[in-house]
Amino acid sequence: MTAQQTATSPRLRADTIRVSVILAATLLALVPLFVVESLPLHDYPSHLARMYVLLQAGHDEVLNRYYEIHWALMPNLAMDILVPPLARAIGSVELAGKLFVALTMLLLSSGTMFLHAAIHRRVSLWPLLSVVLLYNGILWFGFLNFLFSLGLFLWAFGIFVRTQDWPVMSRVPLCAILCVILFVAHLFGFALFLVAVAGWSFGRMWVRDLTFRGVVREGLLVLPATLLCLSLFLFATPTSSVASETSWSDLRRPWHYIAKLQATLFAVDFNDSLTLVAALLVASIVVLGFVAGWVRLDRRMVPVLGLLSLCFAAMPMMVSSSYFAYHRMPIVLAFVSVTALDWTVRAPARALAAILFAFIVLRVEEVSVQWRQLDNDFAPIRSAMRTLPKGTRLTTAMAAPPGLPAPALLHVPSHIVLDADGFYPGVFSFPGQQPINFTPAYAELGGHIGSRSIFHRFPLNFDSYGPQFDPFVPTLLAQFDVLLTFQDSYLTLPQGLVLLKASGPWKLYRLAH
Questions:
Q1: Beta carbons of 139 and 39 less than 8 angstroms apart
Q2: pTM for the whole structure
Q3: Torsions phi, psi of 504, nearest 5?
Q4: How many Å apart are CA 510 and CA 83, to the nearest integer?
Q5: Beta carbons of 174 and 215 less than 8 angstroms apart
Q6: Which end of the chain is more exposed for a tag (fewer CB within 10 A), N or C?
Q7: HEC string for 64-123
């Protein structure tokens, strides 16, 4: 054995152990996904309903009454491309949906680890911080295509950094492939990649690792792919038709920037009791590390973080009809910041890694308990839904009185699509964003999103309505077969309802016509 092999072997073993620890922590973090029947992530049930419609591919005559499939090139197709074929292969759209969420979380943690190794040229336990960040407010809201593209972006940027010494003719097609994959998965991931490439190039120039000519050359690497994706967006995707639905006027209002401070809390809040502990733990490790000299920041990443921060400051609330645009940036900054930092000493690194792993175990147990409770409340309602006639049309009435915690409720009724080939007006079918639409016969009814189909307004703040508020619109209510309510003791229900099932705060009624 040569001296080089002797030196490499212990390092390889140490790197393997570090990678194994991070992957083990990530796999542990996936446990809550598989201990419940229905994932309580805000938008997830509606996404899953769309997957079920796509899986049927127009062959279900009952579903064909309500939904049409219109495939087109859209920069928001990660879940739509992957889940239906996976569901067909394993025989379950619900399991396929969970596997997609699991893959998303794996991409985020492994992508952070890979990019961190590409930047620092070594494998470290520092990316274990990314596993603590997996349960965040963006996941709780169910922005899955965005999070999937964020994981892809971390991998793509890592590949760009790792191949920076390759010949130009090899990197141009590689960058083109990465850009197209990111573009199709979600527009956000593609934009993040372009910003990061620009920041990294200027960062290398800042540390005198690259000349200005080199920065221009790096920009030219991604120029063909950028022009291609921009042309596709403008001329080949229906998404360009809603590009004007961007709330640029927000940027002229001072409160908009105050709201961005709240967006940072939104990004880390998973609506569980350990959210604040998780945020404080990560922040404490970073601050303590800097003060004690245990942590260093790679200077080449400073422009990357700076440009991403400018994007956060300049981003409006709604971009191309997608809400909560700027709310997504803090979690991007969190994951990218983890890749920019690293330990400088070993002993505290191992101790703090042990603390992080122990916290991940606690958080997994906390999330699992919370999700099981929500699932236990709703499981009997889903069982009742499965006994309803095929094609049942369902609408909802929900109240969130002061002091009552509001779990991810609005899209839960979308399960009627899976359980009874049913109709629910809250299923995501926005033109230019999803490949399904309501049929002409149900387009008008489907235009009333979610609970607003029978509400004048959705009562998130019950105080503004009072106990005598009657939310029902009879002419709309008459077009449905069943009514699903949440906390209906706070509502004045119409006459003639027949209770089918009650469980926890949920009640399922048959409507009398």
A1: no
A2: 0.91
A3: 60, -130
A4: 33
A5: no
A6: N
A7: HCCEEECCCCCCCCHHHHHHHHHHHHHCCHHHHHHHHHHHHHHHHHHHHHHHHHHHHCCC
235-263, pLDDT tens digit by residue? 888 877 666 666 666 666 666 666 677 77
In angstroms, the CA 67 to CA 47 distance is 14
Written as six digits, the tokens of 152 are: 């892809």
Is residue 454 pLDDT above 60, yes or no?
Answer: no
Residues facing 485 on adjacent strands: 397, 507
Q: Flag whether pLDDT at 504 surpasses 70.
A: yes
Which structure tokens are listed for 349? 């690194």
Residue 310: per-residue pLDDT: 93
Query: How many residues are recorded in the chain?
Result: 513
Contacts of 360 (CB under 8 A, 6+ apart): 25, 28, 29, 131, 132
Residue 403 scores a pLDDT above 80 = no
SS3 percent helix, strand, coil of the chain, rounded to 5, is: 60, 5, 30
Statement: residue 114 has pLDDT above 70: yes
Burial of 187 (0-12, 13-18, 19+ CB in 10 A): buried
**At residue 195, does pLDDT exceed 70?**
yes
Higher pLDDT, 220 or 101: 101
The answer to whether the CB of 503 falls within 8 A of the CB of 379 is: yes
Residue 68 burial (C-beta neighbours within 10 Å; 0-12, 13-18, 19+): middle
Residue 421 one-letter amino acid: D
Q: Token pair for residue 226?
A: 């950028």
* DSSP 8-state assignment for residue 422: -
DSSP state at residue 240: G
Helices assigned H by DSSP within 163-295: 168-185, 187-206, 212-235, 254-268, 275-292
Strand, coil or helix: what is 128? helix
The whole-angstrom separation of Cα 161 and Cα 367 is 35
Cβ–Cβ under 8 Å, residues 336 and 196: yes
Q: How confident is the model at residue 457 (pLDDT cuts 50, 70, 90)?
A: very low
Residue in the block written with tokens 């960040």: 133
Please tell me the distance from the alpha carbon of residue 439 to that of residue 458, in angstroms, as a whole number.
25
Bridge partners of residue 486, in order along the sequence: 398, 506
What is the spatial distance between Cα 235 and Cα 173, in angstroms, rounded to a whole number? 22
Where does the pLDDT of residue 11 fall: very low under 50, low under 70, confident under 90, or very high at 90 and above?
Answer: confident
List all residues 6 or more positions away from 366 whose beta carbon is below 8 Å from its beta carbon: 272, 273, 274
